[in-house]
Amino acid sequence: MTKEKNTSNQPTLGADILDDLLADPFGNDDETVTKVKSEDSSSRVKLIDVIPEENRQKAYQLAEQIDPSNHQAMISYGTPAQSKLLNFSHAMLDHVQRKDVGEVGSILGELMQKFNEVNPDDLKHEKQGFFSKIFGKLSGSVHEVLSQYQKVGAQIDRISVKLERSKNLLLSDIVMLDKLYESNKEYFHALNIYIAAGELKLEEMREQSIPDLKKKAESSQDQMKVQEVNDLVQFAERLDKRLYDLKLSREITIQSAPQIRLIQNTNQAL
């Protein structure tokens, strides 16, 4: 389906979804966090440099909200978007499982079967024998064929009603899937903002905060300063694991996009 771009200054539905997903970055509900291995931190292009400009500023603002002293907040960082993505994925899976596109194929098969039950050649005069013509049986045969045509025609009419109903359902599904695609795209952008913000904070901690705190601890010989360094290092490790978890969630959106389009294309073809 062709979608027109919104060139006005009015906020779009996608912007509303994105703002909602970013409104509560650390979440208020207790969530079970999946434990995963830390991602290989090999050199790569920074996400903050490739996300859209309008999302880049949101990532910088979100990075400033990450407080290393709030350990509980880090456990639930990004979970609002993850939870909504999970619900979205379940809804999409449920739709696919309930969708029986085979019904359309069955109706079309039934239609072709009805067409095959009649043969136009039966109306041709040459199909009738010489004696049949003499004794006037041609008229009777024609009436029988026409009666059969009328019977099949009525059955085809009923099948056409089924096809029309199925077509309307497919058309409504195409519109619904288009909305699902846009929602999935907004989850992708939201997760990218969470990840980019986390990467910014992680880089700042590893390159500046932790080294600076280490120097202060070494110069002061204060054991409490040493513990503060350890706490900061552990926080950075937890943040790194949360980023890996968020990237796994982002992978769901990447895989969902072509799946949604595939279902749409199937519906359009039917």
Word description of this protein:
The protein is mainly alpha-helical and 270 residues long. It is 74% helix and 0% strand. It has eight helices and no strands. The chain has helices at 13-22, 53-65, 71-75, 79-98, 102-116, 130-134, 137-220, 223-269. It is rod-shaped, with a radius of gyration of 32 Å. The protein starts with 12 loop residues before the first helix and ends with a helix. Residues 1-11 and 29-42 have low confidence and may be disordered.
Largest sheet: none
Q: SSE order, as H and E?
A: HHHHHHHH
Uncertain runs: 1-11, 29-42
**Radius of gyration, in angstroms, nearest whole number:** 32 Å
Total E-strand runs: 0
The number of distinct helices, counting runs of at least 4 residues, comes to 8
Rounded mean pLDDT score: 77
Give structural attributes:
270 residues, mainly alpha, 8 helices, 0% strand
